[in-house]
Fold each of these.
Amino acid sequence: IPPRTERMAVDQDWSSVYPTAAAFKPSAVPLPIRMGYPVKRGVPPPKEGNLELVKIPNFLHLTPPAIKKHCAALKDFCTEWPSALDSDEKCEQHFPIEIETVDYVSAGTSIRNPKARVVTLKVKLSNLNLDDHARKKLIKLVGERYCEDTDILTITTDRCPLRRQNYDYSIHLLTVLYHESWKTEMWESEKTEEDMEEYIWENSCSQKNALDTLLRIKASENVSNVTEEELLASEVVKNYRNSVIALKNEGETEDNMSQYKESVKKLLNIQ
Amino acid sequence: LDHGYALHTTAKDCFSSLASQDAQTLTETPREVFYTSENDPAKHAEHHEGRHYSIPLEEVKAVFPHGLPPRFQQQIKTFNEAYVMVRKPALELFTYLKSSNFAHPAVRYVIYGERGTGKTMTLCHVIHFCARQGWLVLHIPDAHLWVKNCRKLMQSSYNKKRLDQPLQASAWLKNFKISNERFLKEIKTHKKYVWGKRESTEEGSPLGEVVEQGLARVRSASDAVGVVLKELRQHCQLGAFRLLVAVDGVNALWGRTTLKKEDRSPVSPEELTLVYNLRKMMMNNW
């Protein structure tokens, strides 16, 4: 008997041919596809009896009209999106915390999946009320979970067996981090130069060396004793300070290096 | 930072100036475009930029016993002449060095750039300039040679925690002697140095003796290097002569070493006598 493809109309309902995910049936798909490696002076093999087409996953059950039908069926179970939240910025402004959970469905005897208990909490630190010290302490406490480029703190919890417990735990973690970063412990005053996140020029080797050199230059020229505060407040030293901070914090770029060169030339008075 | 555009632009400039002239001018041969007959580095100016100048071979042997990169030395052997290109950073350095005030603490300059842009050759150009002007040149050809692939490491007799490198130190002393012979006779030591049970150098003896001592007894070569550096620093403060310290590959003094002690623990640069003494030269307090 001729295959089903020859009896198909052009405007038929495709979602009834492939209602669910099924293997590729050459007699039910009217497309003239060829797939495979051609032998010498030949063409790729046709679709009849073609194992290659059966092996690969196909999405013939997910055509746009089929998806429209899915959406129409699910609409009764959905609520409408609030009309006031029409842009991303407004969503972030009113709901800064984002919770991500994943549900798993599979064909099997049980509906439970241990991966479903994972909860991911994302929040932007600019939405939290933190001052300078609290922000640095929070970033240190949190470590890898903070991304500097996007300013998002991501907390993933899966240590509890139920999703609701994981969600409560992640909220608890966020609260604890916030309050702890505002407190200042006694041992925090022992913070050394290696712990600093960014370069601070005051009380650094660079400042000492620069002042030392300037004082010696003044001494060799027999200028009356200029105090350190005067030197620190002078234009050339401030220029030098800015260029050194730029070099250390931003890395070495051509602009930074030429700025540093100019400031050193002015500092040491060489042409 | 000049990536070889200098050569191209000078060639173009020459030809454009030729085109604007009306009268019958002889076309410049490539030799005159790319080479300059000005052999004295002190007289090099911006219009010499991008051109090569030659150093007579006897001067090369006297001034650069260990300074030039190995490829350049091969090139000298092939062509039988040493031609160095005049680069813009070198000219900049000449202006700074000519106008430097010797009463002030020493100024340190850094030549930086990507691989193959001519940093070592610029350094050699500056060294040639200073040698012609009569400065004492302290040239360390490549600091990396002192922190990696060293065969013999001995414990220093002067300071128990540090390690000596007799081979590298004696090689450097030999080359230092060749390049700065006349200074070694003039400079006198300030202190008495005791090398072992029977050898010692008296106060007031020329520095050449310290160098000979280092070459003769290889064990104390690194200490000899340290003594030489200390004496040079002290003499510089008195102002007898001008000193140029040129180190190629300065980052090696502060980076990691590939050397290991006998118990396979890594050696940090401070523990090497040569590196420790050289770091003291790098400060600007002389």
Amino acid sequence: MMPAQGFGRRYMKAFLKGFFVAVPVTVTFLDQVACVARVEGASMQPSLNPGGSHSSDVVLLNHWKVRNYEVQRGDIVSLVSPKNPEQKIIKRVIALEGDIIKTMGHKNRYVKVPRGHMWVEGDHHGHSFDSNAFGPVSLGLLHAHATHILWPPKRWQRLESILPPERAPVQIEEK
Amino acid sequence: MCQWCPSLHRTMLRSILGKTFRLLGYTLQYGCIAHCAFEYVGGVVVCSGPSMEPTIQNSDIVFAENLSRHFYAIQRGDIIIAKSPSDPKSNICKRVIGLEGDKVFTHSPSDYLKSHSYVPRGHVWLEGDNLQNSTDSRYYGPIPYGLIRGRICLKIWPLNDFGLLRDSPNGHRFSDE
């Protein structure tokens, strides 16, 4: 009677204490350090999702690396879509602020990337909704840097920051 | 040199290490709770600059809630805090004048005639209440909704101006057009 009630209350207290420690720490970790995500779509083929809808890649997203908005040309990053804030898109960084690049299918032939912005493109040109459609994106929309493919196991690899040579900027602003 | 000194030092060292780890543990735990509170509920913000006068003066302290942006419930007339489109490390504080699809007037100092444009999908049009002294969407264009961080709902300081924030002094009439 009395011991059983005491045990139940102590269990509840321990559970609540664990809950209030575990939930904020986990949420903060997933928001600020790293999380995983499944990639959908064909805009980054062949780097991501080469099998199409049959097998979607799962990537490791590293928030910690972009906490100061530092990205390099060639990085694969996830960002909030400028056309739909409920969606995140994953693309490769082609140009940083100050660069002049030659666009593919944008309304202007040459674009200078404004301060605080970047130019992103999918590897599968023509099947990608990227900066060629919506222009340079603000660095504030950066979500994470995709560093590794975690699933399927035969596609375990580190994603390299390679800038395709034909997409290199026409002019780079010296800092 | 007493023979129990080494064990005494070891015990003191262990208790200091224990206390340090416990302190780090509590700091981490409360830091995470503070992060979750600010990210998903709201927090206190100090505003600087003249662009929102007379509604918000320089060095006023306000409370910003972050729930509206997660539920996509930001409306015309709301005063919001957003990341600056040209410098993601700094924040701007402006009023939402137009949502996606709205018609907004873009006053350019060079144009004699007032031109208008439509706010693109996924973007918002911001203007400061102090139109003469505000760098806002009239200068840098509409900003993506994803840059919005929170909505200011209450002014806390100075106390003689405590309470909900006034409507725009610039006579915008917000209808569902």
Amino acid sequence: MLGRQLVKSRRLTGTGLELIRGACSSKPEQANTAPSELPKKAKQLQHLEKFPEIFPDFGQSPVWNRRVALRDELERADMLERRMQLDIPEFYVGSILAVTSADKNLASREHRFVGICIRREQEGLHHRFTLRNVVEGIGVEIMYEMYNPTIKKIECLKLEKRLDNDLSYLIDALPEYSTFDFNMEGVAHPAGTPIPVNSLKVKMKPAPWSSRWEIRGCQGIEDAWTAQTPYFKRKLHHTKMNDYLQYDLIHDYRTGSTLEHELKVEEDMQKFEKSRHEAGLTRRRIFRSAAVART
Amino acid sequence: MWKVTVGAIDTDANEYHRLYRRLFQDAGVPVKKELASFLVSPDALPALGQRLDVRHFNVGQYITATGKTIDWGFQGAMHRWGFRGQPEKGTTKSHRRVGSIGSVGDARVWPGKRLPGHMGYEWRMVPGIQIVRMNLDKQVIYVKGNVPGDVGEKLLLKDCLQAERHPKELFVPTWNSTIIPTTEEGEPINNPVFKYNEAFIPTLFRFDSPSIVFTEEHGKKGSARDKTKAKIAKVKK
């Protein structure tokens, strides 16, 4: 599966490296020349091109040692059952969500929080997302575990993406960029249209910040390098960033998603959906994408 | 007490010598990769060659898990023993070092002095772990808490010996293999689409049930007395 990832997202300019499917440089006569069955299976399952982005919780752990087939299968079974009980909408980092969770200490026995999703972490049942909002002048970040049974409702008020996959820098940005009205009405996303990318560049509060945003490669900050204090600028530009990471194929293979795994998960999802719909309890659909119009 | 040896994971017999293979010949089972021994009371002895199942334990009972801990390799004193190290500022070339290893008066280093070295891969026992769920089709036990060892390492499970958590009524023999029951048409119980034979403790949340919702009775009751009712003295007899 290295070839697929390589061809898709990497350009080794100047080396002329080409990965031919089935090639084996040491023993060419023993190479498997049969064509891969995955493209055919992908078409049959109506494979979603951006599956790892839509369902990051169904991905495999980036730590190679923690990829256990049996454990992943059992967790996936639990996740699909939960998704049949609770409608978990599609959302990305940068989307505005409203989460209603059960809280036994409040008078109404429930707690509703509206905020922008700033990060999504972990794979499997432990998948969590963090919502940020500014309440009465104080920045509040609440981390929700997606498969926590006390969550009653998740609504996506505004479906959009941002320039970054991690908006943790909003903690050092001006509060207006993190303030969202609790009573805001949802903006429906027309099915079949691509997910809008909000290319907003936030203005930061005066430096120094809680983290070195200027070297973390955050696209959504307006001119972070200039805004940083001279003390930090004395350090080298690439103190923490490693330029070689974009060429690291082994790292990509070990941490990334493969087409084989994605198709397996999609197949499981569709089989599960079908069996539960036939049982007649609910018609909720799990395998769907906002960017793809389904008939 | 009898010593019962349990084997796991079938392997190729040709990779092992005659003496090792003989162990399994007497039991009539394929050659196993891993072996472990347990002390068992005479009334609970399994038969020689009997296949053990997850149902040997009961959901809700407490067990003791024993195994080799995670292998951390060669580690410094700060990680291995929790030493505090030295300050970042004002210290020359010494931030994660051991520091002093003794005093002038002793004129030696005490045996057993905590220093950097190999950490982990040690035999440890964690008692009092509760089994909360079991998957009977996949033979998987879900426990509440942590067990020693890395992913893929073997683990020995036995009944908890602590008095408070020792299983009270143990049905002996705990479980016997029988013919797998099938439905009337002859199809196996294993439904391929994520419907497993599972056992849960009553308090554990099941994912096929709706979200947890709290009602009035879940709310916290204030410690102050209810001022709407009259304060009546309780007369002691």
Amino acid sequence: MCTPTKRAQWREDLQHFRKDHGISKKVLLNCCLVRRIITWASPSPKDSVEDELELSAVRHRPEGLEQLEAQTRFSRKELQILYRGFKNECPSGVVNEETFKDIYSQFFPQGDASTYAHFLFNAFDTDHNGSVSFEDFVMGLSILLRGTVQEKLNWAFNLYDINKDGYITKEEMLDIMKAIYDMMGKCTYPVLKEETPRQHVEVFFQKMDKNKDGVVTIDEFIDCCQNDENIMRSMHLFENVL
Amino acid sequence: MAAGVAAWLPFARAAAIGWMPVANLPMPVAPTEKNKRQDELIILNVSGRRFQTWRNTLDRYPDTLLGSSEKEFFYNEETKEYFFDRDPDVFRSVLNFYRTGKLHYPRYECISSYDEELAFFGIVPEIIGDCCYEEYKDRKRENAERLMDDQEDNKDAKLPNMTFRETMWRAFENPHTSTMALVFYYVTGFFIAVSVITNVVETVPCGSAPNQKEVPCGERYTVAFFCMDTACVMIFTVEYLMRLFAAPSRYRFMRSVMSIIDVVAILPYYIGLVMTDNEDVSGAFVTLRVFRVFRIFKFSRHSQGLRILGYTLKSCASELGFLLFSLTMAIIIFATVMFYAEKGSSSSKFTSIPASFWYTIVTMTTLGYGDMVPKTIAGKIFGSICSLSGVLVIALPVPVIVSNFSRIYHQNQRADKRRAQKVQKARLARIRISKTGSSSAFLHSKRNGLFNEALELTNSTEDEQRLSKSTSLLESQHHHLLHCLEKTTNHEFVDEQYYQQSYLEAGLQNYPSRSPSLSSQDGVTGTCCTRRSKKHHTPLPNASAPAHMQPLTHTHTHPQGLQELSTIHIQPLSTSRSSLNMRVDEPAPLNCQSSQITTAIISIPTPPVTTPEGDAHLPAGPTHQNVVKVSAL
């Protein structure tokens, strides 16, 4: 019972079992003990083979340089530099969420960047397969660094819209806001209070939600941002990165 | 920030676009790369072997030789490469450190040559990865001991101008330094032996008068034995007093093991002298004589091996403790089992569980006296299990103790564990510092940045040049990123101490009459006054302000590091800053040009508040109730 996948699988089975049969916990524990002993005594061979396959499948090679050049707005040299950095940190060619969180947390030593990194990961992982390959990475970066303002705002909207339903609700915004404030950590001036993220969300919604229906749609968002000078200016801030 | 993730900084900065729509404040300007070079390969020629790497790889660690401009000293114009006349094998590890961020120590390398190379390239050995750190430390310790051995052999040269006391102490510690010391050494040894033999012979039954029972010699020749004992004790006392006199640190000497043994050895005699007449305590007196046998421990000064044995036992304290603990557990278990097993049989010697302890111990150590034997079948079964397990339990920790003894014996024992602990603490401290270095680096550069801005305003350029250290581009970009986050959330990063104090302040909001005085942190540079005073300047309400009113908590405008004593309301950044209330007669730019740490101390509306440590503050008039002390250190 070592690998996390086995354990997770077992736990899932357990829950289903309990639900189906409505058995009390005590009885179940006894039963599980027996099951556990059996599983421990005879590890199923098929799992180990699957694990091996999984490991080898994780090694990922990106598409060719020409294709990437065509799909993104980066030059060849820039792609080379990006790939070198990417491969250095993730030799297997894909980033999974844990590594992503680790890397991102290194930039914010004072706070906890893992929640925001989770949202970022979902924003980058456009095909939602649980890992960010080099293509996903470079496409995202292409939008952020070389895209039009429209595309950037689109990307930001996508980031905020956690369940990708086309609307930003207050709860989603609150989650994002809390994640951002978490990155600040504890030692801030002025001292972070509980309601600071909530207040910030209120301000945001007042600004963005024109028809006051409690959600922000993509059009409201883009309109409002285009009318705000600060936001427009900050969109061009990182253009000379790389 | 680790090296590998430096490559991801562009990504982190790009992702910061996600904060922009929620930010309410304008973002700071991004740092520009002054001379943007295309990434290029550089060649490092180390004694003929050419290594090539990207320039960016080396730039990851700007405080080492290869990462800083120091390598320009080694640039060879003709061959367009950097030439180092060093060991190429060790250089491999050094270069891998830049590439992977982990420093490894190869086992085949000599420790001192490795250390030299690391020192040359400006790399601190503490960052050796965990995989190789144990090996590195072990080798280093062995080397240090070897060096100390060599040193000790040289120490015996006689130094001139030693006081009599120091000569005596040296004579005591190293008997072979002079003939007198040697004589003294042998004489004391002889008397220890005599004393021990006397104690032993005292109890031997001598011949007796025909009609009486045998008496021990001690009672037959009382006077002779007493004289012998007195003589020995006199010698020991004199020796102890002389050592005490000669010891460089008397307190430490008195606490050392050997001196305690000396004292315990001679004390029974004196106690016996004092209370020979009293009949009741003569029993206790007899017990005290047992302590005379401790004189044999005085031999450990004369024997190296004994000392090593003692030290081994001390250093194996944990293994011995484990042995004791497991034995106790086993004894209790088996005694209980045997007691209940033998309960049924009549005339059983196993009358209680503690009585069974004796049986268990005798059986587990395979002594088997035979005075208690189980009679029931169950008892015999458990008895055999007991003896088998006894062998196992005792045999387990013994090899550890043995190997320890041999190791110490071969290395001629040092107090290395104590030293290793200190070094371990130092290592962890250094790693912790380097980890917090990244966060404190940001705060530090913020202060520097603001200071530079303030200086610009007051047009004193020479200070600015002095203070603007060249942080690497990577660092400045990272700091810009953190700055953007601050602006997004409208809060600022501060360091731990400051946060705690401002947290306290938040708690004290409701007590207008008190505000503790605080001082700033170390290393804070900042001119508080000029920049903010231009924006909001509230005139200093002087002593006329009644004490119970809003305290003159001068929220110091300097954002970081300096104490910001909040007013009753803690408000977000933009509004709460009132200017530093300085002394009215002090010109504003003065503090700035002093270009040093300025601290704002808040007053308590009580008599002159003590500004905390080290301020050479300019005291405001003592008549001022609410006074601001601005100290320029």
